[in-house]
Amino acid sequence: MMHMLSGDLPRSRMLSVALLLILAGLAFAPFLTSGARPLNTAATICVYIVLVASYDLLLGYTGIVSFAHTMFYGIGAYGIGLGLARVDEPTWTAALTGLGLALLLALALALVIGLFALRVRAIFYAMITLAVASSFAVLASQLSDFTGGEDGKTFSVPAVLGPDYRLFDNDVLGRTIDGKLITYYIVFFGCLLLFLFLLRVVNSPFGRVLQAIRENAFRAEALGYRTVLYRIWANCIAALVAALAGALMALWLRYVGPKTSLGFEVMTDILLIVVIGGMGTMYGAVVGATLFILAQNYLKALMGQASSALESIPLLAAALHPDRWMLWLGVLFVLSIYFFPIGIVGKLRLRRQ
Description:
ABC transporter involved in vitamin B12 uptake, BtuC, mainly alpha, 17 helices
């Protein structure tokens, strides 16, 4: 266990229990729930854990504020989506070719942005990444013949991932092992491996240097570390992992579009989850993404039930009307910041100490 977690144990009993529950819930989600929505929620949590963790490598561990993370996420999604959409018969070769080209593009853009922008002050770098990401989103929307424009593109997947495919004739634990279930476990294990990779990165000597740069870049430079080079490498690693997360999400949705992959709302969600879970803690991505995606998917329904149950109290029923779910999500975010100013994981670890 120590080896798998790269020596970075949760260091809190409550956090350990929470992480085990989340892991078990995601691992057995297809057999614990029924219907499309719970499984879609579980797949989204898996992808967002990796997406947020890759952004935390920049923000929490290196101190880089970037608004281009959704661009790399979108590049991965469009890569595998367009790779499968532009062939008559979807094959793994087409999917991997599209993914490979997307990773090369993401790496090239991350390298160029890093070379030209990471030499400037933090606020200017943030503005540059915002401009580049916005331009890329507009470009994806305008190239309708290639990307599908605002409508995006739906695509078919290899036959083994199709809904008609059956791995076994009989059900397993009451569940048909079909193509959708196989896709879910590709997403789950892919995200698990990517998360463990990021955990290894931040606990390696390379990760220690990144944290030193975050704390005091001038001192790290004085010690002989080429801080710009380390920042560029961190930017490239985060970009590649974000692109892989986007590819897994597109494979799950069988759809790619600017709203789901390149929208600024995705970037806002990433920032909120990082703050809720705790910056500079990979486990914060797990806890934060799980809580946020569950609230995003089920808070509205819970408020509808509460509003119906409180019809005898008109004021409360009106306050809990499902249309106001965004308001209450904001309230929950403010409360989480108030009670967990260093994030949920940071607070749990501090309490343990």
